[in-house]
Predict the 3D structure of the following.
Amino acid sequence: MLKEDRRENMEKEREILEKLKKYREMDLKYVDGRILGSMCTKPHPISKKIVEMFLETNLGDPGLFPGTKNLEEEVIKMIGEMLHNKNPFGYIISGGTEANITAMRVVKKMSREKGRKEVNIFIPETAHFSFEKAREMMDLNYIVVPLDKKYTMDVKYIKDYIEDNVEKGIDGIVAIAGSTELGTIDNIPEISKVAKEHNIYIHVDAAFGGFVIPFLEDRYRLEGYNYHFDFSVDNVISITVDPHKMGLAPIPAGGIVFRDSSFKRYLDVETPYLTESYQATLIGTRSGIGVATTWGIMKLLGYEGYRKIVSQCMENTYYLVKRMKEYSFEKAIDPVLNIVAIRDEDPVGTSLILRKMGWYLSTCRCVDALRVVVMPHITKEHIDRFIETLAQCKKY
Ligand code: PLP
């Protein structure tokens, strides 16, 4: 390349980067502490170097990237161990949405194998909207289970429904470990008893809770609350667990883990022109960045690192509740995980006013409340500023 051309290229690159910077400056930043409603956070600093190293990897064609493929198997093994499964099978994919759709694909295929015409799945009222996408795509039939006093699935409703509809085959139960709105955990051991009796597949959506509950110290566990959610519970066949939420990995890094590799055949599609004959993930061409960053962050933090992060989030959760009390703001429930629901007569209206004041939080549907997810980027100082703004907004 001529010297002149090189100089021109450099000038062009500088201009492009300047323009990109301006766009990026329009975005909110986690460190400013004003993102209070997201389940994502600032990725762990080691991510930057890993992203650069794995930039060109493509797990859609794993024969070309055997090292990255090995890493994926190791990550799934590590996550499996965290979830009490010595023999896991799964993938690091684009997020919780893809993970839930993937699990529903398996439930549907298994149902078809049994010769059923309708795919019947119990799903809690609190289920994430990704299940609605799955329903639309696969024509699933959901039986929506109401919530009990704890805002968790009413297991008696499931039992009664099965008794009253014996002719209706039930293919699956979706349970949540760390619901999007409140952080509640369905009573999965109780659900498991019913599932075992009727040979039903349980899928647990632990997209958020998967990287919280295993590291939650006893002192943060509510008395009489059931925190069991993983493969140690019978009939739990698949779990969504997202590294790009409380796992601190950069987006995209979602996780789907199955009890074992026998479920792969329900996902496999023939791939005539790639280095491997079958592909199981929904997304074809997919970066290996999620795999490599998750591997690196999990190795670096280990159990102790995640325990500290979860404990800090829980301390800040309790601090928010304490500050709320000072201003007579009520919590809708005792926090189960690092999510606080603040009772409000008009949560949507209040959240819009707060947004105008520069604070971004969301609302609950199952109870009139504002919702704060106390992620690792939230500090006590942010909480103080937020509480004062909320008080101002409510003209305390
Ligand atoms: N499941 C639960 C419980 C969630 O809270 C979310 C997102 O917040 C999802 C699934 C979807 O995850 P994603 O946005 O990564 O697709």
About this structure: The radius of gyration is 23 Å. The pocket of pyridoxal-5'-phosphate is lined by residues 39, 95-97, 100, 128, 130, 176, 180, 205, 207-208, 242, 254 (CB under 6 Å). The chain has a mean pLDDT of 97. The chain has two domains: 2-44+306-393, 47-298.
